[in-house]
């Protein structure tokens, strides 16, 4: 089933067209990987899904993007509520300079949850879901900045999960991490897809092959091909996809 369906999406930064006629369905409770050479529009596309591009000046978006049956670009959409349903994790772990507890409790508190017991429960659930609880449960009041890079990234995932999103967008979430921390995040992503729909931008084709169900290949603003990951990496339909995955460019 499609969680998000994108039809005829075009996006411009001023006069520059960064995405052209994109049609793509994001399947529910699956991992969709976005791959392609630098500058092809992967991050731009990812940001259209929760309207993060709205924050950039001079962006024009046309086409239709639906989260289930809701058109997310309608004028009356509450963008804050939308971003609550579609959370985001960035390339570089970006915890707040606050305690581990406060990082996770921050969003729920802003949404008006004040009850300490309820916040405790959200913090524990989110940290458990992000496979971080056992490592931090005895130092919840310590600064998040004292965690390792991989732990910080799992904390950022916990922070997103605290808002009970339905979709998680991840923009190269492991590119700043070592192989062991990367493996932990990959395991976590595979676990999380039981409950969440995940869209991940990655430069690593090995990573896309390891963790994703579907893969979309972008090239210079066009979506060249989208299919089951297995198919993309074994028998792609388009010569350009084949050239990219066999390392002929990129
Ligand atoms: N804020 C912006 N203003 C103008 N042009 C932009 C902006 N952000 C991105 N672009 C341009 O849009 C195109 C797509 O960029 P985008 O960052 O989406 O690509 P990408 O595939 O994610 O690249 P990378 O893998 O290097 O992160 C590029 O040509 C880029 O220079």
From TrEMBL:
CDD domains: ABC_PstB_phosphate_transporter. GO terms for biological process: phosphate ion transmembrane transport. Its main location: membrane. Keywords: ATP-binding, Cell membrane, Membrane, Nucleotide-binding, Phosphate transport, Translocase, Transport. Transmembrane segments: none annotated. It comes from the Bacteria. It is found in: Cell inner membrane. GO terms for cellular component: plasma membrane. SUPFAM superfamilies: P-loop containing nucleoside triphosphate hydrolases. PROSITE patterns: ABC_TRANSPORTER_1, ABC_TRANSPORTER_2. Part of the ABC transporter complex PstSACB involved in phosphate import. Responsible for energy coupling to the transport system. This is Phosphate ABC transporter ATP-binding protein, PhoT family. It comes from Natronincola ferrireducens.
């Amino acid at each position: 089933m499609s969680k998000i369906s994108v039809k005829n999406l075009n996006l411009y930064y001023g006069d520059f067209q960064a995405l052209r006629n994109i049609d793509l369905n994001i399947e529910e409770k699956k991992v969709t990987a976005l791959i392609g050479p630098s500058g092809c529009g992967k991050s731009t596309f990812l940001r259209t899904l929760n309207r993060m591009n709205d924050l950039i000046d001079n962006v024009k978006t046309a086409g239709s993007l639906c989260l289930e049956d809701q058109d997310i670009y309608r004028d009356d959409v509450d963008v804050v509520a939308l971003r609550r349903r579609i959370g985001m994790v960035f390339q570089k772990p970006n915890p707040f300079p606050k305690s581990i507890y406060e990082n996770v409790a921050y969003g729920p508190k802003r949404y008006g949850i004040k009850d300490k017991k309820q916040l405790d429960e959200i913090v524990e659930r989110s940290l458990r879901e992000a496979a971080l609880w056992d490592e931090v449960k005895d130092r919840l009041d310590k600064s998040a900045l004292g965690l390792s890079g991989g732990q910080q990234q799992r904390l950022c995932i916990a922070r997103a999960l605290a808002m009970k999103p339905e979709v998680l967008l991840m923009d190269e979430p492991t590119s700043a991490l070592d192989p062991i921390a990367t493996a932990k995040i990959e395991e976590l992503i595979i676990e999380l897809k039981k409950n969440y729909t995940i869209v991940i931008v990655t430069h690593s084709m090995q990573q896309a092959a390891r963790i994703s169900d579907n893969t979309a290949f972008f090239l210079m603003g066009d979506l060249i091909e989208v299919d089951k990951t297995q198919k993309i990496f074994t028998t792609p339909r388009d010569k350009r996809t084949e050239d990219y995955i066999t390392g002929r460019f990129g």
